[in-house]
Amino acid sequence: MKMKFHFLKRVIATALTLSVLGSSAALAATENLFGYTVVDSSYSQGLAGAISGERTGNPTTFTSSSKVTGLNSDPALFNYFQGTESRLVLRQYNVSAPATLIANKIIDPVASTWTSLATPTWSNVRNLHAVATKGKWLYATGYDLAKIAVVNMDSSYTQTPYNYQFPTTWSIPTSDVPAGASVHGEGLTVVDNNLYALFTVNPSGGYSVYSDSIVVKFDINVSTGALSYAGYLKVGKNAFTLDHFNNKLYVCALGGMQNAGSANADTRLDIIDLATFTSTPVAKTASMGGDFRDITIVDANTAYVFLGNYDTSFANMVGGVYRTSVANLNSPAAWTKVSDVNSAGYLWGIYADSNRFWFVKGNQIDIFPGLPTSTSDAATKSFTASQLGYTGGNLNSAIILAPDQTSTLSAKLSTGVAKSFASHSILAQQARKAAEQYKGLKTINGKRVLSFN
Fold first, then answer.
1. DSSP string of 183-213?
2. Domains of the chain
3. Counting CB atoms within 10 angstroms of each CB, which of 32, 68, 223, 248 has the fewest?
4. Band of the pLDDT at 432, cuts 50, 70, 90?
């Protein structure tokens, strides 16, 4: 009876968000729409929270609330589906002692109170950066170890014996991943019975030099969760998005480390055709500034791309957001700028759905009431890090919260996961460190750069 009641409660809650057939009015309910983590100004503690409102409502009515407090200095959220139900992983990275793992928290983001449904620890994942699911299997990768762990969600989120280490498990040649290189797990996406994983490569260690990133394709054994290697592709340097739309993956790459006052010459957008598993690189026009930092696609007619780089002191991000059709994503000359960017902060990302546009803008979250078409369009609601929990604090991660899959929004999420900006947190941490150590920057080949060794 308890399970039946739980199911009915979700059906009723979802029904309240849908239009009443044949009626001119629509019933709506407040939902948790957007998740975030924020840390205090001294990076000693953090919390997780949600922005709530009606899914089709005006952003001016949205509110925020803290959901999980008492977290450490590097928490982040990741959304996925367990069956038809939306779930979150809340991880806390132990910055001072990375090998000492802090248990993850599994959370129901639809619930008003975010209590832990389970608290698993996965030894093959350190500094979690991405999750994706297929059936009862959850796949997870972390920045530090560059492994893929397989987790059985139906068995209290227990890590299975399957453990895949990039690049050695698949014998990727040293011409593409040199021996001794530092490698990092960045992204995961499930499409049909395939898992796609994104890894970045620092050929000589450290963070000052990047070689091409790697996207690896796997076949999923839905019975056991095991992965079978099916091939790999090279994409841009320092890549960190793996967005899926209409049987293609879209990968934004900075083209190298973040610079002060200039973009990278090698920055690019890779469009991967999953039917042929081939990649088409896209370069910006000469008049466009900034590195490719993010992409979001609403439908065939509406896509947005964010380009930007930091100014000469790492104080502000300078760049712009562009709108185009999917067909014109490989023709940047046809893009229209819809937002000029010159703002402080470190966490950056964009997301658009049919109702509104979300901009994780440095140290605040801007919400547009519709889809911007020109630079005159503006956000009508903003939440600063100070408003979200800590005066003078900093955003650490952000994520769209998918409802349970009984809704039309979740049905569109064929990758089984809502978009997360958590992978951008490494970029935020590196830029913040560069700003703090700005006086130690050196000019190399006309660019001011900082080694993170």
1. EEEEEEEEETTEEEEEEEEETTSSSS--EEE
2. 34-449 (2.130.10.10)
3. 223
4. confident
